[in-house]
Each structure stands twice: as structure tokens, then as C-alpha cells.
Design brief:
four-stranded antiparallel beta sheet; single chain; Gyrase A, domain 2; transmembrane helix; Fimbrial assembly protein; transmembrane; 9 helices
């Protein structure tokens, strides 16, 4: 049966310490050259072992002089240099490891090599020059250090909690932990955080300044989009009416195109009424598009075809069949087809003809053969005509109704003398 282990590891990484391991590489970021200017300069009043006092600031010692007096009031923190006769030194070599593991290994080494009790032990270690290089471990007794502080008298500012330093080099102090260094480190951390906040604020302001034109353009685009949407909503009824008007215009254009080649029946009847002789009678008139078919009776069908062929607006005049004459009849039965010209007999032409202009009626001669071949009756008259005279009654031709004249009536016999009617 497999055993359950509580060791939280993933590919050899301890998940319990994952956050710490991710944070450790950034712990020393404050010492990087790019961020070192964020570290505050903290003045420390240094009580040296040689009997002199100095103001320590950023690795530099400033001693009191008549031209540049230095006092403990210029520094917020105090440090005491520990004499060498109170220290124990040991050289330690440790492998490369994390900061927390490094501190734990040094603490174990200090407790192992210390001749002092665990509650009396204070120690400090210098940072190694490189990974695996030896480092100096310094041990001291807390009781001896406090006794040494009491011998300094008024050299230590009253009310201060001093630190204890050991100098490995003139400009590199080694701090023994467990005294007043926590206050100085907390102060430096606060100043560093303040600097980071100010830096982040400056970067944010610079980004906002750089993005302000783009943001303004975006806001203007949003306002324009909203205004366009509002305008489109308010103009929707007008746009709908415009579209309806355009559809109606398209329908009207299509209707006009369809009616462009349409022959006006009344115009055609008017022209036929004017040009047909009185001895011609039509029985039927069929209009299909521009093709006209007429049937009826006339005295001479060939002369009638010639008359229609010479009429402006008529073309392609032909007879689909021969004219026939019933024995004993005076007229021939004919069927004639021709094409009407929409340019002269169409709807548009009829709409341009003035309604007030009377159309003159041309009375054709009674005998068809006497009509000359070049007779041409104009389709319309534009010149104003004088007051029309009563139309002359042509000689009636035998037969039925005649286009261009009046219907022929049989002659009434004269009343006999002595009849019983009124005169």
C-alpha cells in the first residue's frame, strides 16, 4: 500500500518556501547600482575605540573641528566601535545558498564555536566577496559590551539605543545584531519605500502625460460615436421617408420606362379620324404595343395603304392578306397592319400637345383615286387657328359608320300633297 507523504515538493522544489525563494533574489535589489540611489544616507554618531568621536555618513567619517564642528545632535542614531580585546574572530567558508539558509548556517556555526552562553552570545558576519569564499565571523559577549558602554559615560547621547560595530575595513562596518540596529534599518526601509512610491508616482505621471493625447482622442471618438448614434436615432424617421421616396422614384422611373414605348390610343384614333377618307369604314382596331391592326371596308384598299404609308408616324404598312370584294358590293374588305412611331404617337407626345389647340379636320374627297400619292396630313398643329367654321358635311357614302365624317342616313321621301301631317 503506498504511503502518503506530507512533504510538499514539486520537481524538487519545496512549495512551502516557494514564496520565500521567489522573494530572495529581490532582497538585495536595493544594493544594485540602478537602485542604490534610493538608499537613504543615514547619519550615525560613531563613538570610536580610540577615544575620538565622528559623524558617520555613507562610509565617510567627519570629525569635529573648529571650522566644521560635529555633534551628536546631527545624527539620529548612535554606534559604538567595539575594541578588539572584546571580540573573537573565526573564518568560515560556506557553499552558495539562499540568504535565509546562509543566516541559519552562520547562526549554527556561531553557537557551535561560541564559549559564551546562548543568551549572552552576540555575533556578526561580513558578506562574502564571492560564492564559496571565506568570510569573517565575529563573536562577543553581550554583558561585556554593555559593561564597555557604561565606561563611555557622556560620550553616548542620553536616551539613545546604540549599536555595536566592528570594522573589517575603514569604510565597512560589521554590525553585531541584537542592539539598536533594528531602528536604523527600519528607518532606512521606510525612506526606501517612500522613494519607491515617489518613483512609481513619477513614472505613472509620465505615463499619463504620454497617454493623455491618446486618451483625449479616444474620448473624442467615443463622444463622436455617441453623437452619431443619437443623430442616427433622431434621423431614422427622415431616413425612412427618404428611402420610401427613393423607392417611389424608382417605381416611377420604371413605370415611365415601361410607358415610354406605349402608344396613346386617343392620339392614334384622332390621327386615323383625320386622315381616313369618308368612303372608308373601320370595323375593328387592335393595338398591341406599337403594332396596329385595322379591318374595315374602303373603295380602294391599295390607295388606302399608300395613304397610311405616307402618313408621318406610321411605318411598315402591309396587308397580311389580299383585299376582297363581295359580289354586288361597292367596297373592298381589307386588313392592314402597320407600326406606330412612339416618338409621334406615344404617351409623352400626347402629353405635350396643348389641350386648347383644336385639331383641324381635313375632309377627304369622296373619290379615293383622286387623292394624290404625296398627300401628307400633319400629326398636330401648333399655330393658332382662326375660329373654326362648321364642318362641311361630305357626301355620304353607302355603308355603315365612316371615320372622318358623319354616318350616312337614307334619304327621307318628300311628303305628299294632301297628307295629314303638319307642314
Amino acid at each position: 500500500m503506498p504511503s502518503l507523504s506530507s512533504d510538499a515538493r514539486f520537481f524538487g522544489l519545496d512549495l512551502h518556501d516557494l514564496a520565500r525563494q521567489l522573494r530572495e533574489p529581490w532582497d538585495g535589489a536595493s544594493t544594485w547600482p540602478v537602485f542604490s540611489w534610493l538608499n537613504p544616507v543615514t547619519p550615525v554618531w560613531l563613538v570610536q575605540a580610540d577615544g575620538r568621536d565622528a559623524l558617520w555618513a555613507d562610509g565617510q567619517r567627519t570629525y569635529a573641528s573648529p571650522t566644521a564642528p560635529a555633534s551628536a545632535g546631527a545624527a539620529a542614531f548612535t554606534a559604538i566601535e567595539v575594541p578588539e580585546d572584546l571580540l573573537l574572530r573565526r573564518s568560515v567558508r560556506l557553499p552558495a545558498m539562499g540568504a535565509a539558509d546562509h543566516a541559519s548556517a552562520l547562526a549554527l556555526e556561531a553557537r557551535t564555536a561560541s564559549p559564551f552562553a546562548s543568551d549572552d552570545l552576540v555575533w556578526g558576519a561580513a558578506s562574502p566577496a564571492s560564492a564559496g569564499s571565506p568570510l569573517s565571523l565575529v563573536l562577543a559577549s553581550r554583558k561585556q559590551l554593555l559593561a564597555y558602554q557604561s565606561t563611555l559615560g557622556n560620550r553616548v547621547p542620553a536616551g539613545s539605543v546604540p549599536e555595536f560595530w566592528v570594522f573589517e575595513a575603514p569604510d565597512r562596518p560589521l554590525v553585531l545584531g541584537g542592539f539598536g540596529e533594528a531602528r536604523r534599518l527600519a528607518f532606512a526601509a521606510r525612506r526606501r519605500r517612500t522613494g519607491l512610491v515617489l518613483l512609481a508616482s513619477a513614472v505613472a505621471i509620465a505615463c499619463l502625460i504620454a497617454l493623455t493625447p491618446s486618451l483625449q482622442l479616444k474620448l473624442r471618438a467615443n463622444e463622436a460615436r455617441a453623437a452619431y448614434a443619437a443623430l442616427a436615432a433622431s434621423a431614422a424617421p427622415a431616413i425612412a421617408r427618404r428611402e420610401a421616396l427613393l423607392r417611389a422614384a424608382d417605381q416611377t422611373t420604371a413605370l415611365q420606362q415601361r410607358l415610354a414605348d406605349r402608344i396613346e390610343p386617343l392620339r392614334l384614333l384622332d390621327v386615323l379620324t383625320r386622315i381616313l377618307p369618308d368612303d372608308t369604314a373601320l370595323q375593328s382596331l387592335q393595338l398591341v404595343g406599337t403594332k396596329v391592326t385595322v379591318t374595315g371596308f374602303t373603295a380602294n384598299a391599295s390607295t388606302l395603304m399608300q395613304l397610311l404609308g405616307n402618313q408621318p408616324g406610321f411605318r411598315d404598312v402591309r396587308a397580311p392578306g389580299a383585299a376582297t370584294r363581295v359580289p354586288g358590293a361597292e367596297k373592298e374588305a381589307f386588313t392592314i397592319e402597320f407600326t406606330a412611331d412612339p416618338a409621334q404617337l406615344g404617351v409623352r407626345v400626347a402629353s405635350r400637345v396643348p389641350a386648347a389647340a383644336p385639331s383641324p379636320v381635313v375632309a377627304a374627297p369622296s373619290q379615293v383615286p383622286s387623292v394624290p400619292a404625296a398627300v401628307s396630313v400633319p400629326a398636330s398643329t401648333t399655330a393658332p387657328a382662326p375660329a373654326p367654321a362648321p364642318p362641311a358635311v361630305a357626301r355620304p357614302a353607302p355603308g355603315g359608320a365612316v371615320f372622318g365624317g358623319t354616318s350616312a342616313k337614307p334619304a327621307q321621301p318628300a311628303p305628299r300633297p294632301g297628307a295629314g301631317g303638319k307642314p
